[in-house]
Amino acid sequence: MLYLTPHDRRKRLIRRLGIFSLFIAGLVLALLLDHTLWQALKTDRPITRRDWYWLLRLAGYLPTWLIVAAILCLAGHAAKRNLTPHALALAGSAALSGLFAEILKLIIARDRPGETGLHHYRGLFAGFADGSNLGMPSSHAAVAFGAAFTAARLFPGAGLVLIPLAAGCALTRLLMGDHFFSDVYVAAWLGCLSASICIPGSLIPRHPTAPARLG
Q1: Which tens digits make up the pLDDT trace of 33-45?
Q2: What is the dihedral of CA 70, 76, 81, 87, to 10 degrees?
Q3: Contact 38, 113 (CB under 8 A)
């Protein structure tokens, strides 16, 4: 068990409060921009017929990352490396982020934009009575960001490809008019949270000259 000095505990608390304040500030801004961005981004073009749309959309499909995790395990075995913990962290983060999103939908109980693009809340926990047509947050975006943030921490450089891919998945939800910007904003934070939960500290690559961090 790691012992933290009072100074370390204060630093950790200040850091967490700073992150929470940043999240709240961003959420307020996202909520204010929701209707404007919904009108600006929603398109009637048949984008679902385009290959790029499905490439981005499938980044939010959990089986995509289960397949990637299986490939990691097989590649590690072939290279005589144990990549199973990495694969489990990747798949686990994608699944956990999606699960968080599904639970929050039932708690927040905000409808999808519909035809008006206006917020409509049914009331806290109302989603447990009727879980249909709920949009806050986006499950697809949450899955994509959960996998992307995990891969970015486990495999340096992977985030340069996968985080934009996750953002592209979020964009497809906005282009279809099925979600507000705040839906995918919260999903991105869920992905970050899931990554921090699912990645053991021992798996995070460290610079050879950098001192080891405790905790």
Answers
A1: 999 999 999 999 9
A2: -30
A3: yes
Answer whether residue 8 is part of any domain: no
27: left (phi over 0), alpha (psi -120 to 50) or beta: alpha
Q: Give the domain range for residue 103.
A: 47-200
Instruction: Provide the pLDDT confidence category of residue 2 given band limits of 50, 70 and 90.
Output: low
Confidence of residue 213 (pLDDT cuts 50, 70, 90): very low
Number of helices and strands (H, E) in the chain?
Answer: 7, 0
**Domain count across the chain:** 1
Instruction: Read off the pTM.
Output: 0.89
CB-based contact 130:145 (threshold 8 Å): no
| H or E, element range at 27 | helix 6-41
Round to whole Å and give the CA distance between 196 and 82: 21
Q: Does the residue 196 lie in any domain? A: yes
Q: Is residue 21 part of a domain?
A: no
pLDDT digits (tens, 9 = 90+) for 12-56: 889 989 999 999 999 999 999 999 999 999 999 999 999 999 999
In a domain? residue 166: yes
